[in-house]
Design brief:
Distance between the termini: 40 Å
Strand order of the largest sheet: 3-2-1-4-5-6
Helix content: 40-55%
Number of helices: 9
Strand content: 5-15%
Structural class: alpha/beta
Largest sheet: 6 strands, parallel
Length: 210
């Protein structure tokens, strides 16, 4: 995150269409099929709301891409999932701004529990409220900003959080817009670089022997 990252132009949350956006890799290890199940559940729960999902990114191989296409088609979601593919950063942000909600579901475990998902910070920087699952970093960001909902990675709970986010959209969008200062203060690249430099220097001093 940098001070020049463009803020999002707020969009109205009224109307029948409610689009979710996901920025990132689309390989099956990311459990993108989970988001498809959530989309299907939201459409089942509220058939009067046109829930849609925009996927900005790409799978790493053709078989992985085929797998994702098959997963979408098997659920009958092809008309409701927009696969825009990989985009340059500015274009990806522009596309994300058209959505109402950013989603990030990161599988729990020793690999991802220590991660700091860039997508969550990007959503909030764009002024997008979020629904995320409870890996530690995402939980901390949502708790600090109040700009979204954090729940376990379970279809029912995630779908219900999206329903609640839609109902509270104006409030959460306002908080997402206000989150930018906190993000720059705590997640700006200059701040992170200083912390890494300090940690490395302390580690080097601790490793010295007389």
């Amino acid at each position: 995150l940098t001070a020049t990252t463009p803020p999002r132009t707020p969009s109205a949350s009224s109307g029948a269409t409610f689009e979710l956006v996901y920025l990132g890799a689309l390989d099956r290890v990311r459990h993108i099929d989970f988001l498809l199940d959530v989309l299907a559940e939201n459409r089942r729960r509220q058939p009067d709301v046109d829930y849609r999902l925009c996927l900005v990114g790409a799978a790493s191989t053709a078989p992985e891409d085929d797998w994702l296409r098959d997963q979408i088609e098997a659920r009958g979601l092809s008309p409701f999932v927009d696969r825009v593919g990989p985009l340059p950063r500015e274009q990806a942000w522009t596309r994300a701004r058209r959505a109402q909600l950013g989603v990030s579901a990161i599988p729990r475990g020793p690999v991802f529990d220590v991660s700091s998902p860039t997508k969550t910070v990007e959503y909030l920087t764009l002024g997008l409220p979020v629904v995320v699952n409870d890996i530690p970093d995402q939980a901390a960001v949502v708790a600090a900003t109040g700009a979204g909902l954090c729940v376990p990675m379970a279809v029912d709970e995630f779908a219900q959080a999206i329903v609640q986010a839609r109902e509270r959209h104006a409030e959460l969008q306002e908080r997402a817009g206000a989150a930018r200062d906190w993000l720059l203060a705590h997640r700006g690249y200059d701040v992170l670089a200083t912390r890494v430099d300090r940690a490395l220097r302390e580690a080097l001093r601790g490793g010295r022997r007389d």
